[in-house]
Design a protein that fits this description.
Distance between the termini: 31 Å
Largest sheet: none
Structural class: mainly alpha
Strand content: under 5%
Helix content: over 70%
Shape: globular
Length: about 475
């Protein structure tokens, strides 16, 4: 694939995910002003169970189409049928279990919220397959438009409902409207008409891949949602409200970069010759790590009590104590994303499943201990250590052992940017809030120059080329 096509595709994905996260951020700002932390806590519990049910559809049939291709109607139609039937069955299961969940958390409103979410589950099971077709075909411009419209719909409907006094139901209204728009637009832009078909020749292959993806998703779910479950059950809905907002803020950069890496990385890695995959993966991880380390450090430096009070109100100051641990975890989530994409592209989601299932009980236990010992701060520290450091070490060790890659090379690319950001953070904390980002960037660049000069000169060369290109463009006019 030509580099210009990759750049163009990457720009569309970045645009779509950036706009989506901006809308989510704006929605959080508005809703934080209109709602109470307990309202965020109630919907946070509902999202935990929404995530549980969607893990059976989100990265299964759609990911299989990305891996296998969209040309064989037997594979495509069987994947669609599996996804749709799974969505219907899970929606019924969500309806049945909704009262049990509400009783367990002593939140009666959860019954109606989860029943409403069951309708969205059927819509999403179809939308994920349509987006899988479009991702495989690299229709990133269309995907960007869909993301923009559905995100804008969610923002307007959610904030409008909150202004009308619907409290946590505002999230349900916004999500439902967004999924309806997403499903309709995905069906239109994919220009693919599926048939309900379970072809006996390919269904076993489809089921095997999907089960491997589900195994990975179960482990990821237990690890990445057990913190919310633990906070909600042990510490209550108000604490979960603080934790949930901090989590959304800390995952902003992660969501943008992970979406870019997964949507662009899976089809690109899948089409690379085997002998080129290791080098391509290393280059992606290295560049992403240096950028992500700087981004998360700046977020950490900016979100102090003064800024949070200005943005969300004084009652949200407790999120400042939770953000450092979640931001640390967010960084490692970003740098691990290329490996996830590579494993799916190589048809090995089972390796993701193996690592995530091994880590799940350790993560759950650490969250419970963290909640008992340190409240939401204790949970965030457990997330940083277990899902950040330990997960990264085990994940790369398992992959490198399987494919005979040099483990040391990949781990250095993950951890060196973190170490180089420490001097800038320590110096910047002594500065006024408005000067912290600039002080950090200057210190970070100096650290790059002295400790990893090859990386520094790469960026210098890139900026020089960009500068000359801009000058040439101005002269051509």
């Amino acid at each position: 694939m030509k580099s210009t096509s990759l750049i163009k595709s990457g720009l569309w994905i970045t645009y779509a995910t950036f706009v989506t996260r901006i809308f989510v951020f704006l929605s959080s700002v508005v809703l934080a002003r209109l709602l109470q932390p307990a309202d965020f806590g109630v919907i946070g519990i509902a999202y935990v169970f929404w995530s549980l049910f969607t893990l059976f559809t989100q990265d299964t049939a759609g990911a299989f189409i990305i891996y296998k291709g969209a040309d064989n109607p037997k594979y495509v139609n069987t994947s669609y049928t599996v996804s749709l039937l799974t969505g219907v069955v899970l929606a019924l299961a969500m309806v049945v279990t909704a009262p049990v969940v509400a009783d367990f958390f002593r939140e009666p409103a959860l019954t109606g919220i989860l029943i409403a979410f069951s309708f969205n589950l059927v819509l999403s099971s179809a939308a994920y397959v349509y987006s899988g077709i479009m991702t495989r075909r690299m229709q990133y411009q269309a995907l960007a438009h869909i993301s923009l419209v559905s995100s804008l719909t969610r923002l307007l409907c959610t904030t409008g409902a909150a202004l009308l006094g619907f409290k946590y139901w505002s999230f349900v209204i916004g999500d439902t409207a967004s999924w309806v728009i997403n499903c309709l637009l995905s069906r239109h832009y994919s220009r693919h008409r599926f048939r309900l078909q379970l072809d006996p020749e390919v269904r076993s292959e489809v089921f095997t891949f999907c089960l491997g993806s589900v195994g990975s998703s179960i482990g990821l779910y237990l690890s990445f949602n057990a913190d919310n479950f633990t906070v909600g059950k042990i510490l209550g809905s108000a604490s979960l409200g603080f934790y949930n907002l901090a989590y959304q803020l800390s995952m902003t950069v992660s969501s943008i970069l992970s979406s870019l890496l997964n949507q662009l990385g899976m089809p690109v890695f899948a089409q690379l010759p085997i002998e080129e995959q290791e080098d391509a993966l290393f280059k992606v991880v290295e560049q992403v790590a240096f950028f992500a380390a700087a981004s998360y450090a700046i977020i950490f430096l900016v979100f102090d009590p003064q800024f949070v009070t200005l943005l969300f109100g004084a009652n949200w100051i407790p999120i400042c104590t939770v953000l450092p641990g979640l931001l640390f975890y967010g960084y490692f989530r970003v740098v691990n994303s290329p490996l996830y994409s590579m494993l799916v592209a190589k048809g090995r989601p089972d390796l993701n499943a193996k690592v995530s299932l091994q880590m799940a009980p350790i993560a759950v236990l650490s969250f419970v201990i963290g909640a008992w010992q340190g409240g939401i701060v204790g949970v965030s520290l457990a997330v940083a250590v277990v899902l950040g450091i330990i997960w990264t070490l085990l994940y790369w060790w398992a992959a490198c052992k399987q494919f005979h890659w040099p483990l040391r090379k990949f781990l250095l690319s993950c951890f060196i940017p973190v170490l180089l950001s420490v001097p800038g953070i320590l110096i910047s904390l002594q500065m006024p809030l408005i000067l912290r980002p600039f002080t950090f960037l200057l210190t970070y660049v100096l650290c790059l120059r002295f400790f990893v000069p090859e990386q520094f000169f790469q960026y210098q060369l890139l900026l020089t080329k960009l500068f000359h290109r801009v000058i040439a463009l101005r002269h051509s006019r």
